[in-house]
TrEMBL record:
Disordered as annotated region, ranges: 264-290
Source lineage: Bacteria, Bacillati, Actinomycetota, Actinomycetes, Kitasatosporales
Name of the protein in its database record: SalK
Database matches in InterPro entries: HTH_67 (IPR054058)
Pfam families xref list: HTH_67 (PF21863)
Amino acid sequence: MSRDMWARFEAYYDVIYAPEVRTAAKALGCKGGWMAYFALRAAPLGAASPDVVTAAFFNFHPEMVARALPDAWTVATPDRYLDSRLEVVDAALHRMLGTDVRDLTEAASLATTAAQLAPTGGRVLGAANQALLTPSEPHLALWQACSTLRESRGDGHVAALVAVDLSPCEALVLFTADKGLDPAFMRQMRGWSEEEWRDAEASLTDRGLISDVLTPAGRGLREEIERMTDAAAARPWRALGSDGTARLRELLTPIALRISDQNEGMRTNPMGFDADQELQPQPAGHVDGG
């Protein structure tokens, strides 16, 4: 269930990448979209250093982060970036959902409960988002809850990558091979050089995980990482209960589909997130670790 729910709260969270964010970045005075990305996502941590953000985000090249931070904190304060996040989400959701944004009270309540039940130990981004005040408007409260759940799951995913001894670039190379993504696109989106990418490929080849393509051992490791991630993200849904989780799933599914159909910012993305595929019903008997 944890992966099934992830697909739904990820699609809702991703409105932060809608075109409205470009207008917000310009208004803030950010020097390019990546400065806005790092500052908006890292703002719950306060004026965090590039080293801290690199560690928390995991698969970005340190130099890519350092080109945005700490300069972004001289452009605007973390609190201003937090306000801007909600302004972007508010504008994007009103454009995508129209007056239906008023019908999200029940979904917001259930998601907020789940987010408050998410574990925080060892989960820096999840904890920082959980500590933020819940917005009064239901559509924004729902987004903030989805942000907490998303970052908490991401923290658990990073823990899984560390547990199987993958460096940030190695994890990205393995993921790229598994998803059939374009290596050049992934390098560009995460800041790694061709030489660093080749070095990571060589390391994975030595471990028997890739050989031009993903090997059976590599596929098995990727599946194990996802199982570990799902299991680590299951607690909020166990605590919410099967009825509450099923109801939230029912409420989020049509909303997530509507948003994903309109969110051009996610047409091509480095997460390999395909909403149409991920939001399909799970086959009977499917078990995802939670």
